[in-house]
Specification:
Layout (H helix, E strand, L loop, with lengths): L6 H4 L4 H10 L14 E6 L11 H14 L3 E6 L16 H14 L4 E6 L4 H12 L3 E5 L6 E3 L2 E3 L3 H12 L4 H11 L11 H11 L15 H20 L3 H4 L2 H14 L4 H13 L5 H4 L19 H7 L1 H8 L44 E5 L2 E7 L10 E9 L2 H7 L12 E4 L20 H4 L8 E3 L11 E2 L20 E5 L4 E4 L3 H10 L10 H9 L26
Parallel strand pairs: 1-2, 1-3, 3-4, 9-10, 10-11, 11-12
Antiparallel strand pairs: 5-6, 7-8, 9-13, 13-14
Length: 568
């Protein structure tokens, strides 16, 4: 039998082997499970503070059954859990901390392969970043989406309808009583947002990259078939260890290109950009914003909120990602999957059961709906906009800027009756990038000013170095790089400056002379850092800009070494 990594822990007939085996046996494990069989880690982000992931305890048990059945030894371990809706200042601040946690646990323990159990927005990319950095065989099982929200006889979607309801209350079109009543029907089961938010986007992209079994993305969290999928995943990871099939074999440039195409087709989150860039950095794939642009001509095929009308439960019943891959077949790149074959096999036998939910390639929800990358003197290193969730007329626009220097100023002033803005105004928010907030929060979809929303305005151009929720919508320009806190041109924008946006040309231009910008730069000073200790200081000191995935600079790349120091 091939000598496994775990043999360094459990296969020695000496003091160290005695210690490693003996302490594990206090869990009731018999001698024969240390016979050289694969030791499979189940990396679990379960937490009651991460509601999206609170069903993962049950899924872990299904994974264990599959591992035992295939002749492996399953061992579950916890890592940092990131509750997107619960954490302040933002869960994104801690994505890289989770990645470090996952990487160091996998490296430090005697594991031969790992199953990554995640779901909530930052847990999936964080886990994949960490696992890719060690490069042991790995596979993902997502927690799955919640059941459709229900209110007054209609489906409602987490996030997307929250934004709509909130604006309706501010406009006087919805009572506070109705707003609170809708809350009770929004989240009806375990699972992630049932819209195509960041969590379901990342689950979809993981499947499209071949890092999870087919149907992983869309099956509801409480559907028995997700338990079956987890069981089969447990079986498969043991086989992957036997085959030495690693993330680096799967996460090739072609796999990332397939993810970009899929993100366009499903109307996926803008957050996918920073996550894909960060994951690519861990496996040494040269992925840039120029690659993101390659998906811009792909049509929107999945009619799910926030870009469409249905929810993830409907997407699952219509056929899920395998149907999308079938529609994209002519555009997909050859790429290996966790099953060992090509990604095209994921579409074998796929059949669509609702063509209003998943549209044919030649009859899409919207044409050319992929994310657009904007560049110009306001965003030398790029910015992102999501046309499928934007107002078409605003994607080609020029108007005066109204600037909020920071999030506190925005919150204090946005509802002022005398705020000097019109529907043509471009709202600008600074200080919310990776270093500035810190952590790059989801505040880029700024509220429409109260005086305008009462006049019926529901969308305006908004520009910032922040992110926005994958469930959000609107003509929102995000991830401006370099960020204001790092001295990017965004820092020098003043109220009244004119800004020109052209999504078709990929331009974001501040109509101010170079000399004027140079004078402003000469007198500019960054705000004092908000983070002064612990992980947050480490983050601010070492985080890369959004166009490079906002990873920590010293974590880019991988280290596959097994610890060679004596254990005891």
């Amino acid at each position: 039998m091939t000598k496994r990594r775990s043999t360094h822990w459990y296969g020695k007939l000496d003091r160290d082997g005695f210690i490693h085996r003996s302490w594990m046996k206090n869990q009731g494990l018999p001698d024969h499970v240390f016979d050289g069989r694969p030791v499979i880690g189940i990396c679990n982000t379960w937490s009651e503070l991460t509601p999206c992931n609170h069903g993962l305890r049950d899924l872990a048990e299904h994974v264990k059954r599959g591992v035992w059945e295939a002749g492996g030894l399953p061992v579950e371990f916890p890592v940092t859990s990131l509750g997107e809706t619960q954490m302040k200042p933002t869960a994104m601040l801690f994505r890289n901390l989770l990645a470090m946690d996952v990487e160091e646990n996998i490296r430090a323990y005697g594991l031969d392969g790992v199953v990554l159990l995640g779901g909530c927005d930052k847990t999936t990319p964080g886990q994949l970043m960490g696992a890719a950095s060690v490069d042991l065989p790995a596979i993902v099982v997502s927690s799955g989406p919640m059941l459709n929200g229900k209110w007054r006889g209609k489906d409602i979607g987490s996030g997307t309808d929250v934004w709509k309801f909130s604006e309706a209350v501010r406009a006087g079109d919805m009572t506070l009583q109705d707003f609170m009543a809708a809350e009770a029907g929004m989240s009806r089961s375990a699972g992630v947002c049932m819209t195509m938010g960041t969590a379901s986007t990342m689950a979809s992209l993981v499947e499209a990259m071949g890092m999870a079994l087919p149907t992983n993305a869309a099956l509801p969290a409480v559907d028995a078939r997700r338990g079956t999928l987890a069981h089969l995943t447990g079986r498969r990871i043991v086989e992957m260890v036997e085959e030495d099939l690693k993330p680096s074999d799967i996460l090739t440039k072609a796999a990332f290109e397939n993810a970009i195409l899929t993100n366009a087709a499903v109307g996926g989150s803008t957050n996918a950009v920073v996550h894909l860039l960060a994951i690519a950095g861990r496996v040494g794939v040269d992925l840039t914003l120029a690659d993101i642009e390659k998906g811009s001509d792909i049509p929107l095929l999945v009619n799910c909120m926030p870009s469409g009308q249905y929810l993830m439960e409907d997407f699952a019943y219509a056929g899920g990602i395998p149907v999308v891959l079938k529609e994209l077949a002519a555009h997909l790149r050859a790429s290996k999957t966790v099953l060992g074959g090509d990604i095209s096999a994921f579409a074998d036998g796929a059949e669509c059961f609702n063509r209003d939910v998943i549209r044919p390639f030649d009859d899409p929800v919207k044409p050319a709906a992929g994310l657009r990358v904007l560049r110009g003197n306001l965003a030398p290193d790029g910015a992102i906009v999501k046309p499928s969730a934007a107002t078409d007329a605003l994607l080609e626009h020029e108007g005066p800027a109204y600037v909020f220097e920071n999030i506190e100023e925005l919150k204090a002033d946005i509802d002022r009756d005398d705020l000097p803005v019109t529907p043509d105004t471009i709202l600008v928010l600074k200080g919310c990038g990776p270093k500035g907030y810190p952590g790059m929060p989801e505040v880029g979809n700024m509220p429409i000013p109260a005086r305008l929303i009462k006049e019926g305005v529901r969308d305006m151009i908004r520009v910032s170095d922040a992110r926005m929720s994958g469930t959000a919508y609107g003509t929102v320009i995000l991830h401006v790089a370099p960020e204001a806190q790092a001295g990017g041109p965004l820092a020098f924008v003043e109220t009244g400056d004119r800004i020109r946006v052209s999504a078709s040309k990929g331009e974001l231009t501040l109509l101010v002379s170079d000399d004027a910008l140079a004078r402003r730069r000469a007198t500019w000073k960054p705000d004092p850092p908000r983070a002064t200790r612990g992980y947050q200081k480490l983050y601010v000191d070492t985080v890369l800009q959004a166009d490079r995935g906002a990873d920590l600079d010293f974590l880019v790349g991988k280290d596959t070494r097994i610890p060679d120091r004596e254990s005891h």
